[in-house]
Amino acid sequence: MLEIIKKNWFVVLIAILLCGFAIYYVWDTTKDFVKGKSVDGQDIIASIDDYDLSADELYDEMSRFSLSQLYYRFRNAVIEQSVTEETDEMKEAAQQLKENLEAQAQTNSSSSADELIASMLNNVGLEDDELDRFCMLAQKESVLQQNYVKEHYDDLMADVESPRILSIIELSVSDVDSLSEDESASMDTIDAALADGTAFADVASEYTQSTISDENGFYGYIDEDTASSTTFTEEMLSAALSLEEGETSEWIHVNSDSGDKVVLIHADVAGKDSLQASEDDNVWSSLASALISRNSTLSSEILFDAADKLEITFTDENMEARLRRFAGLDA
């Protein structure tokens, strides 16, 4: 029996969740049998100062919370069943995420780190001690989203005209309008390395001071609809979109409230065909993130597409509809 449950744990999970909804249904159908204080025709179960909490309000809140928990447990199961492989790269990224989350939690003075992390985990359908699982779920969800974008690339990119994957080198300067000798010398050194044929990523790994790219200068995806920001200015955006694949911009002088800097931008990939042909996971991850940030329901569409491929059968059609509404897919 144990082996059967192990092999079919996803089906068992759905069955348990269905049972949970049945329990709430029974509670809902009997909640009016006990009568007490009533205000405006509504049964009051608690009063605090001048505030009365009605049974209907409590039930609505419990229903919302239970649906949230159901959705995230459903989501977690779909992701883990859809992406079963855990590569060394995924494990390394998950460990880095874990370390980052623990470090961030330690900086909060209002609650203990363990309490903050436990609360975060509970909110997404996980137990207090499942931080490792949470971090691996993040990696698996990224793979799931990348695979979906690859599969539906033509449709998702139909209206895009100028996609680019960028890397950047940034140097902080004290005054962009009056560079010091040392600052100018650093720029000359970088120019010489690139002129000698050193790969942009290698030069970036040694010299860049950017806070918006990785250690090798990788920045990620932009296109003509990308909005400028204080860290990636309109001038930087314009220069990036003018680059052909493999080209590097001239030094861009940026004067901003966040600090002066000089920037080189390199087009790693340019054009829809080249982008689609890329085998770099970082490229696809960046593209998927950009598309999801612009489409509020895309991540949910990806999740339910994966659920369909798992051939999940909902014995309660109302529950599937509730999950879809919670995910923002249906009105």
TrEMBL record:
<keyword id="KW-0413">Isomerase</keyword>
<dbReference type="InterPro" id="IPR000297">
    <property type="entry name" value="PPIase_PpiC"/>
</dbReference>
<feature type="transmembrane region" description="Helical">
    <location>
        <begin position="9"/>
        <end position="27"/>
    </location>
</feature>
<keyword id="KW-0697">Rotamase</keyword>
<dbReference type="InterPro" id="IPR046357">
    <property type="entry name" value="PPIase_dom_sf"/>
</dbReference>
<protein>
    <recommendedName>
        <fullName>PpiC domain-containing protein</fullName>
    </recommendedName>
</protein>
<feature type="domain" description="PpiC">
    <location>
        <begin position="163"/>
        <end position="267"/>
    </location>
</feature>
<keyword id="KW-0175">Coiled coil</keyword>
<feature type="coiled-coil region">
    <location>
        <begin position="80"/>
        <end position="107"/>
    </location>
</feature>
<keyword id="KW-1133">Transmembrane helix</keyword>
<keyword id="KW-0812">Transmembrane</keyword>
<keyword id="KW-0472">Membrane</keyword>
